[in-house]
Design a protein that fits this description.
Strand 7 and strand 8 form a beta hairpin. The protein is an alpha+beta fold and about 270 residues long. The two termini are about 25 Å apart. The protein contains six helices and 17 strands. About 25% of the residues lie in helices and about 30% in strands. Helix 1 runs parallel beside helix 3. It has one domain: Nitrilase/N-carbamoyl-D-aminoacid amidohydrolase, CATH 3.60.110.10.
Amino acid sequence: MTTMRLSVAAVQMVSTPRVQDNLAAAQALLTQAARQGAELAVLPEYFCLMGRQDGDKLAACEAFGDGPIQAFLSRTARELGLWIAGGTLPLRADDERRVRNSSLVFAPDGACAARYDKVHLFRFDDGRERYDEARAIEPGAAPAAFTLMARDGGRWRVGLSVCYDLRFPELYRQLAADLLLVPSAFTHTTGQAHWEPLLRARAIENLAYVAAPAQGGLHENGRRTWGHSLVVDPWGVVMAQRADEGPGLAMAVLDGERLAQLRRQLPALDHRAL
């Protein structure tokens, strides 16, 4: 890649149990990102719904290719002329008692360009907070990446992941991407300890950009998420960060020449022996 640039917005939200309210909030933030020159906007995990209980995901579940949440993403991408990575939304699973936690990417023409179903499901219990995604979510089985054609003609290989995937570096090696997306809803407890170090590590070891939008704040269901949405460069430098809780954007312009230069200077990806 040479002289390629891509403006990216990591969108931070504090989603509610009401899908329509969340779509309206996402619409406002995506419009803001487009007005500020973004070509790619990435929504956080569960952008469309932070339910009060696991069953809320089932009630909002959609069949792949059909449903109001997907229609919103497609229409908004087309109206704004924007690539949109739709955080995650609940899609129908093989097990009717569960859903897939799926990240869908829509191109500026409104077409769905990629789908990734979250592979690694979060479980945490410190005696005060308890989470077990497997109760309501069916895991995916395969990595996913797509090619983003930028306005300047540049081609970016973009790898998809979601939240807890961040703790499994082998997934990111398989993606072999220029840009890694990590839409998340990290808890305040785990985010405070591990969010930024893990994101910077994935960027450094893969010599890739990382865009990580997050839920950030106190939700109506009582859950508190860490936020601190950010964009990291291939050297591990934080380029942009949403430092406060609450909705907003972390925006940065990715430089394809810097990426190529760093990979030439430190060809670690070519030195893998195992």
